[in-house]
């Protein structure tokens, strides 16, 4: 598999507060890659840097050979990167359909394509079709997560960045969301996944990186990470090295 995205020696900060230093990782075409770690480790900050919501203080990011490092977020969307942020962030006073239309902004000159993409999202998330005219702010948490996933997919991304998709959701809803993530991946979209539930993350992804205080302390196949004593102790609990997670 050829590299889709390569991050090289990133230094990420908010003002004078450094979050990540010397951060390097890559995603190949067709992969799901997980970032796991404790709260405050720099996972969401890394996703924001990939999507263009935060420009790095040093280092570089290349996507399909294009240097993204100083590009704004809208330019990255046009190149094929979409971000599903933590906490969902729907437009609460707009309808479900209007939220999806905003996700298809890059296709705004092709109304027919926008309609076709909305139909595809309704096929992927039948519950959204039932609520097409309902204000997004009145949806349940699980329905809002479906909506932000659908809204991101409206841009037809090559790389989908998912930030804590299970946060605050019931276990049954989480299972549905991760089934959808696998279906999106099966359709040819690469995924960079930040997820508080390390078991779900390492079950869904093929490779992973473990972040601790802004640095990568372990990486490799998810099977190898499940067998890493540090990962088991910190994120999975004891006695799970050979268990499916």
What can be said about this structure in brief?
The protein is 38% helix and 27% strand. With 245 residues, the protein is an alpha/beta fold. The strands form 2 sheets. A 6-stranded mixed beta sheet has the order 6-7-8-3-9-10, sandwiched between helices. Strands 2-1-4-5 form a 4-stranded antiparallel beta sheet, covered by helices on one side.
Give a structural overview.
The strands form two sheets. A six-stranded mixed β-sheet has the order 6-7-8-3-9-10, sandwiched between helices. It is of the alpha/beta class and 245 residues long. It has ten helices and ten strands. Helix 3 packs parallel to helix 6. The C terminus is likely disordered. A hairpin with a 2-residue loop joins strand 9 and strand 10. It has a domain of 166 residues: P-loop containing nucleotide triphosphate hydrolases (Rossmann fold, 3-Layer(aba) Sandwich).
Q: Which key features would you list for this structure?
A:
about 240 residues; alpha/beta; Rossmann fold; 6-stranded mixed beta sheet; 4-stranded antiparallel beta sheet; 10 strands; globular; disordered C terminus
CATH architecture of the domain at 3-88 and 157-236: 3-Layer(aba) Sandwich
Radius of gyration: 18 Å
- Number of E strands: 10
> H/E order of the elements?
EEEHEEHEHHHHEHEHEEHH
What structural class do helix, strand and pairing data support? alpha/beta
As a percent range, the share of strand residues is 25-35%
Specify the CATH homologous superfamily of the domain at 3-88 and 157-236: P-loop containing nucleotide triphosphate hydrolases
| CATH topological fold name of the domain at 3-88 and 157-236 | Rossmann fold
Query: Biggest sheet, in brief?
Result: 6 strands, mixed
Mean pLDDT: 91
**General shape:** globular
- The count of helical stretches stands at 10
What is the CATH C-level name of the domain at 3-88 and 157-236? Alpha Beta
Strand order of the largest sheet: 6-7-8-3-9-10
The amount of helix comes to 25-40%
